[in-house]
Design a protein that fits this description.
Layout lengths: L1 H4 L7 E6 L3 E6 L5 H4 L4 E7 L2 E6 H34 L1 H25 L16
Antiparallel strand pairs: 1-2, 2-4, 3-4
Pfam families: MutS_IV
GO cellular component, one term: MutSalpha complex
Organism: Biomphalaria glabrata
């Protein structure tokens, strides 16, 4: 495109992207006269930072890219929903495992305390309550 317009690539002619338009070319307003009478290029709009335009090939590739991007996003959403459903299936077993590990932690702590006590641990004897 830059050669066709006799302009410098990446300096006066830039390839840009926006969510609404997709990919398009932009030239400065000063360089707009190279674009003015050229039937190969279609002006999208003119703003203070330059003139946005595209040609037929850019439009075709841009439409193809947007369709592929939309299909990719749809596939990604489906995959995210599937992953969330799988992860949700593990919530109850993980909660149960958490409770079991908490009980095991308490029992191991009691065992460590009784094994490392300076005085040997003796099982207490319980007597009936006297009133």
């Amino acid at each position: 495109v830059a050669r066709d317009l006799n302009l410098e690539a990446n300096k006066t002619v830039k390839l840009e992207n926006s969510n609404q338009l997709g990919y398009y070319f932009r030239v400065t307003r000063k360089e707009e006269k190279a674009l003015r009478n050229n039937k190969k290029y279609h002006t999208i709009d003119t703003k203070s930072n330059g003139v946005r335009f595209h040609n037929s090939a850019t439009k075709i590739y841009n439409n193809e890219y947007q369709q592929i991007r939309d299909a990719y996003n749809d596939q990604q959403k489906t995959l995210v929903v599937e992953i969330i459903n799988i992860a949700a299936g593990y919530a109850e077993p993980m909660s149960l495992l958490s409770d079991i590990l908490a009980q095991l932690d308490v029992l191991v702590s009691f065992a460590v305390v009784s094994a490392s006590a300076p005085i040997p641990y003796i099982r207490p004897t319980l007597h009936p309550k006297v009133c």
